[in-house]
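Researcher: Here's the sequence for the chain we discussed earlier.
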Amino acid sequence: MERTADAYWLRSPGSGGIRSVPLRSPGPGEVLVRTRYSGVSRGTETLVFDGRVPESQHAVMRAPFQEGDFPGPVKYGYLNVGVVEESDDPALTGRTVFCLYPHQTRYVVPADAVTPVPADVPARRAVLAGTVETAVNAVWDAAPALGDRVAVIGAGMVGSCVASLLSRFPAARVELIDADPARAAVAEALGVPFALPADARGECDLVVHASASQEGLARALELLAPDGQVIELSWYGDRQISVPLGESFHSRRLTVRSSQVGALPPDRRARRTFADRMALALELLADPALETLITGESAFRELPEVMPRLASGELPALCHLVTYDGDGGTAAG
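Model: Thanks. This is the structure I predict for it:
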């Protein structure tokens, strides 16, 4: 009997389902992983679910183990934590690992595609590793200095992670800003001061923008001190936005610079690898406060009904946790 697994596929924009897929045995240097948890990254996965990945970005936006093509059918996702069931490396067998893999009950990948989860990081919290990795990259790009005045606009998954990391810098003044007053609770749990956009403190040396809104980017520029810099983390998909580059933008010598997790910052590429960055992200997840970013939970079998509700905002979420206990496909031949 052929081994199988079950995977969530987006059939077409706005409609997904669970498919049975063949599951081969791992070869040399590969591992078979049984998923325990995956996470729905609401920002990017909503754009994918709604079919809003521009054609020009189809190649750039491919997830590491994506199957199919945008706009669909496509198997997409990148927050997966599981247990290694088969491996030719005894040190990996039985280990809990993180992998940038879609929502699937079991899968086979190269051993170097998984990162062991530290013993002091619960498996469910480890689904945030991909998001914390993005935040690490953003902080490397931002390069804050001692005592900097920093604002982070957008208290979603990425913005909240960035604010949490930046707040650890000595003498830094960090404020997390969001138009939703309910996000104040997230900021409080992370130990970061919160403000609504109109109440945010200005004269910032650095603003990290992660709200994916035109209004947020405009406010980011307003909050900068002369010679200040905006690090733009938002990805807008196929939306066109306006950036206010008139008024005092030039006279104050402001800068808007992009940050994207697909590449290491130029000044790190000779000294850090993607594996180093992921290992650091998992170490940082020892902080229990970051678990406040997991704001919902459902079973894998419920994903076809849950994804439309997440995409529409009916289920408000930062990271939505997907559980797999009892969802294993056919485990043996």
